[in-house]
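Data card: per-record layout.
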Amino acid sequence: MAMKITVIGLGYLGTTHAVAMAKVGHQVIGIEPNQQKIDSLVQGRAGFFEPGLDQELAAQLASGRLTFKQAHDESSRDADIHFICVGTPQSAGSMAADTSYLESAIQALAPFLREDALVVGKSTVPVGTAAKLAQQLAKATGFTSPNLAWNPEFLREGTALEDSLHPDRLVIGVTNPRSEALLREVFAPMIDAGIPFLVTDLATAELVKAAANAFLATKISFINAMAEIAEVSGADATELAQAIGYDERIGNKFLRNGVGFGGGCLPKDIRALIARAEELGVGESVSYLHEIDKINLRRRDRVITLLTEELGSLSGKRVLVLGAAFKPDSDDVRDSPALGIALLARAAGAEVVVHDPIALHGVAVKHPELELEQDLAKAFIGIHAVVLATEWKEYRELDPNTVTPKEKFIIDGRNVLDVARWQQAGFKVLALGRTITN
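The structure for this 438-residue chain is written out next.
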């Protein structure tokens, strides 16, 4: 049955969730205080790159099931469920998550909340946040026991809409049967399709997302730690990953060595988990995550080491970094390894040129010291060294015979190139975690 819902906060998560909920048949009001975002959304533009999202956004606007507003009004009072999808960035000067946007969202919603309606948090938060928000909601509304649940998201940038419509699991943290019943109703199309539906308490639901991201980050940094050993012993970390990945207890997903992880989730989430564990007096339980973070950052430093070993001083040398986004099919440059490498090379004295098929607009304002080039062929001209840092299809399939750098030297930071093909074109190829004979 179609339900009336609001989605509060229309960033990456909120926009995708609002579109997905409208697509499965619900009546959705998106709430976003930023008028520029609203103006973009009502024209069918999400404001960020996500394959297929703009097309589906336009379709749901045309259906009449999806509307957007800058603030709550009486129409919000008609909603059965309110999903809160605001950001929880890393706090300035701390590893802890900043939950102030959640608190503001609660205060703005309270005057328009029915006592029988359900508030559902989807943001990634430190365990214990939901309990605090429930207290704030009770104080703001005067309700003795406001209905609040937690439903963590597990979206992957590049496949976010598909992940919303066909998730590998649905996790809800609830405090009463009515909340569970409402969430079963709103997610009925997914549940009917056989998607696992896990019901737990608030704290466990909050911890699920943090634990999942900590595990994924650990897996990536583990194979990168093995790559560090491979680089000094002559072993091949890519073959190592393939060999251990066949073990079904390990699996091969997220087991590819390279320049490490980035984006708006894994780095901040493992740091927030460390901070929260320390607040709870159990910091030693996740002390290993400090090393996970360090391993990840060392992979960026390793690229600079390889550049200087090949070129000597980087002063006056032109280095092309292929990629700015933290992963392909995304324009997200938050904590991007590619951008990190570009900035490290620039700090070492290099003249850095950055190419990316989508994400250059996010770099231009923040980093004017970097030279940006949208034409891939032009980007190679006058270049002394190339670093492939984001595995876009354009780079994986690039014909090395069509580019003319000053010096034919490339570092494959993602281990995705056909090495023999590039060598046949006259390039010296280095790759992280591997010994390549040139």
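Known properties of this structure: The domain at 299-431 is CATH 3.40.50.720 (Rossmann fold). The mean pLDDT is 95.

See the next section for split statistics.
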